[in-house]
Write the structure tokens for this entry.
Amino acid sequence: MPAEPGDAPPRKPSRVFVVPEGVKYLDTLQLAGLERAFRTWAEAPRRGDVRASRRRMLLAFLLLRYTGAKLGEVLDLEPARDLEGDALRVGRDGSDTGRNGSDPGRSVSIPAELARDLAAALADPELAGYLPRLFDVDQGHLRRKFYERADEAGLPRDLVNPTVLRRSRAIEMLREGLPLPMVQKVLGQSTANLAAGYLDVSDADLHRVLSHFVASEARRTSSARNAFYGRVAKVEQGDIQARVELETLGGHRIASVITLESLSTLALRPGSFATAEIKAPWVILTSGGQPPASSAENRLAGVVDTVRRGRINAEVTLLLADGTRLCAIVTSPSLDALGLAPGAEAWACFSGFAVVLRVE
């Protein structure tokens, strides 16, 4: 039924989605912290055999985290057979692709970075001895490694297991507005209720929509320039404006000041997710490694990555510790006065009024 004049615009599912009380899951920020713990652990060894063993565990975790598959399905994967570009054939039954009555499984889009990691594993001599069943590991050993990474990431152990990772992926997709039948198809579940039974999803539609979701997810979590994706940690409401504090995937705290109307329109509340964006001319740079004396609420340390000098202005890109690139526009005389050049330490400062919040 068409909306009547004056009706409030419908809110996107991501703005009203609420996980029921008592459901165990990890949100996107917690999953990012767990992934960092796994990557740090996997990259630490110098011995080739230890490094190879840990890489297998890391890849198994990443597959559980990004496919929503069951543990048994991940351990049964054969990357040389099941990797299909930026998608993975999960739940395949038999060596062929559906002939002679075997189950071809389901195609699940995965991040391009994970697809590259799997392709690199296939070509790595250190992992050659584990092929084709790269993830044929003891489940108890794998779970112990999960618990150890949970401790390192500061997460409760009962939230870091394959079942919770599967549930967390489903919640991520539902939060971003993917229809229930699509989420069920990705997870390999049967129809959960009668209403969902009236809807069907073709493989082509599923691949198109899921690929779009994965690509959007990768863009906002891959250190986009002057954009920070994160979870709302705190909301303080005043008479006209509100102060919103965002905890980003990279561990930064970004404060924004917005109107109460915007707070309501965006449906921002502690625990919800948003992207903070800062325009380059609003970023003020100071040189040196010590925190500057500034009234700006947001102060981030980094290293000058690139400098593009013009006759009047210069564009300076600062590389932060988490890999985020923060771009600032400064005058050419200021560039010289500050001594900003690639490799120099610097700080980026910006006011909460300069931070625009966006909810997809």
Summary: Residues 235 and 244 are 5 Å apart (CA to CA).
